[in-house]
């Protein structure tokens, strides 16, 4: 992965080799880019081909949480300045994190530092973007762990977590975190022929979404672009994808507080609205959700 290979938008050319070091594994693995799923927003998502020796399907999704390509750097208004990436600022932020980790200095970062009267140092913005991406990565990884029983059915399988290794190593001051996720060829709810979306497809999905909170998770970004049907021509499975915005219940969080957060996020209501807008019908969500939600509660 040379600096020249990766485009300004974060995409890679076809067949570009990417090196990933998976957590808990000594040797790194090479994946070859098939395509980039543009445009990127928070994370960068690639369809990749593992090496033949890898114990993985022939195609998997590599989701990279690289703050360099975070869309927050380029606000959609002229009133807020752009915050383009620089290696110098990334290096300064990384050095400060290392000092904090070693106990040499206190962690004095606070988001308010970005909005003082004087312009904040670029390294502070790099730290902010780094923490934002780490929060997304950690939330999505933990969500998949908590929803292990749903993987391969109503959510994709998670194959592992790791780091994308920069080439050359000195081209970056960080190794962006990454997830390897099941590739599901299919069609999004936003694009599907409504006549293909039958009750036996969407009812299990509604039930699964209703059960998320019982596992200490809510998705918080349910929309037509995060609901996938596979295979595209004759779907027999509906899948909720992209847990990058997922919220997680803390161990000490009171029931009432968690229930309020779940109600406010309203994953089931958003799923119902997405389906109703696409299908042009009114759904009895409570009836569809009740059986699976109660069974998941018993399983926990």
From TrEMBL:
User: GO terms for molecular function, please?
Assistant: ATP binding; protein kinase activity
Outline the extent of the Protein kinase domain. Answer: 31-300
Q: Which InterPro entries match?
A: Kinase-like_dom_sf (IPR011009), Meiotic_Drive_Suppr_Kinase (IPR052396), Prot_kinase_dom (IPR000719)
Q: What Gene3D superfamilies does its record include?
A: Transferase(Phosphotransferase) domain 1 (1.10.510.10)
Its name, as the record gives it, is: Protein kinase domain-containing protein
């Amino acid at each position: 992965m040379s600096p020249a290979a990766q485009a300004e938008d974060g995409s890679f050319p076809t067949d570009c080799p990417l090196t990933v070091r998976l957590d808990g594994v000594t040797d790194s693995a090479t994946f070859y880019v098939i395509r980039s799923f543009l445009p990127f927003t928070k994370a960068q998502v690639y369809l990749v081909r593992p090496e033949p020796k890898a114990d993985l399907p022939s195609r998997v999704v590599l989701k990279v949480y690289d703050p360099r390509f975070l869309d927050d750097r380029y606000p959609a208004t002229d009133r807020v300045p752009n915050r383009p990436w620089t290696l110098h600022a990334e290096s300064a932020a990384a050095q400060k994190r290392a000092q904090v980790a070693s106990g040499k200095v206190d962690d004095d970062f606070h988001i308010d530092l970005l909005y003082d009267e004087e312009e904040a140092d670029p390294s502070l913005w790099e730290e902010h973007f780094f923490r934002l991406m780490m929060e997304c990565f950690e939330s999505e990884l933990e969500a998949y762990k908590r929803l292990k029983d749903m993987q391969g059915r109503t959510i994709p399988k998670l194959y592992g977590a790791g780091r994308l290794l920069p080439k050359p190593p000195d081209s970056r001051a960080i190794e962006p975190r990454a997830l390897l996720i099941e590739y599901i060829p299919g069609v999004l709810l936003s694009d599907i022929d409504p006549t293909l979306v039958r009750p036996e497809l969407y009812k299990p999905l509604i039930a699964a979404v209703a059960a998320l909170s019982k596992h200490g998770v809510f998705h918080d970004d349910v929309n037509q672009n995060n609901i996938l049907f596979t295979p595209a021509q004759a779907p027999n499975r509906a899948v909720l994808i992209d847990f990058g915005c997922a919220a997680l219940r803390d161990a000490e969080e009171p029931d009432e507080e968690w229930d309020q957060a779940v109600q406010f996020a309203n994953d089931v209501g958003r799923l119902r609205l997405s389906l109703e807008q696409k299908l042009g019908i009114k759904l009895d969500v409570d009836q569809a959700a009740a059986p699976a939600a109660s069974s998941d509660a018993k399983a926990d």
